[in-house]
Amino acid sequence: MIAPFSIPSPDPAWRTLEIPVPWGILSIQMYALCILVGIILAVIITSRRLTKRGAEPGIVLDIALWAVPLGIIGARFYHVFTHPDDYFFEGANVWNPLEPGAIWNIWEGGNAIYGALLGGAVGVIIGCRFTGIRFWSFADALAPGLLVAQAVGRLGNWFNHELFGSPTDLPWGLEISSANPAFPAGLAEGTLFHPTFLYELVWNLAGAAVIVLLERRFNLRWGKAFGVYLIWYGAGRAFFESIRLDPSEMLFGIRVNVWASFAAIVIGIVLILVQRRRHTGDEPSPYVPGREWSAPDAEVDSEDTESDSDSLDDDVEGESEPGATAATSPSRSTSE
């Protein structure tokens, strides 16, 4: 019997969005669409936050052009190399993108957040070098937006009927068809599972709100806001990962992603402590010294000020003309 408040899995037909186009049917995976929407939201949020801190409007796009592709590549390869049995087996053709299960086929699912963080960080470093933005300024501005993006991305797991948790009797359990290849053998039809996608979605949105609220009371610049992100996400992910049923590589009896979550927590704590000691004040600018950007309004104001100053000098010189003979008399020293 299905619990009255159980969460149904979407119809498998919803997994793919088919759009008629002149040359046929364009198929878009809902999983990919969720990731795309998450990326767009993260860019918008980060851009608004960074612009408020003095950065040029739209400069986030210049960094995203590096961070997003490298983040996607990192997410895919981290997943592949932490799930080698799914790709590297006898008879597998992992290099041919036309074959199902190839390592390049990101549209089939299989992306890892920690891989996205590693690859995306490399992209941010490159983008920041080109734009002159401080790496930690960008990371702090990104922190809440990144959690929002991850929350939206988890909806893709719901559409794919994947990465659910262990069986549960809770009223909000997730309904999974027994025909699903991931359905554990030996369990009865109608068994409910922990909706880990929903847990992480709520946890991430709450984390984004926590970072924004903490910023109102504490100085979370110089990478400290990103440190809070690492601690918050790592703590939640360590728990959600431990109740998931999907196969994963194990290290000393613990899932690899749980170890990665522990590492994220430690890095976040160290980052906050180190930056708190190194930087006690606020950031002077989101730009590195010598790469600052001046707003057009500021430039106009500066020009107006210079113009007014020149006019004032002209007026003073004009007023002093009647006494010019005394001012230029040889009997007066110009060094007085």
From TrEMBL:
GO CC aspect terms: plasma membrane
E.C. number: 2.5.1.145
Gene Ontology molecular function: any one: phosphatidylglycerol-prolipoprotein diacylglyceryl transferase activity
Residue stretches in coiled coil: none
PROSITE patterns, sorted: LGT
Main location per the UniProt record: membrane
Stated family: Belongs to the Lgt family.
Source organism, top-level taxon: Bacteria
InterPro entries: Lgt
Residues given in the record as a 1,2-diacyl-sn-glycero-3-phospho-(1'-sn-glycerol) binding sites: R154
Name by which UniProt lists this protein: Phosphatidylglycerol--prolipoprotein diacylglyceryl transferase
Keyword presence, Lyase: no
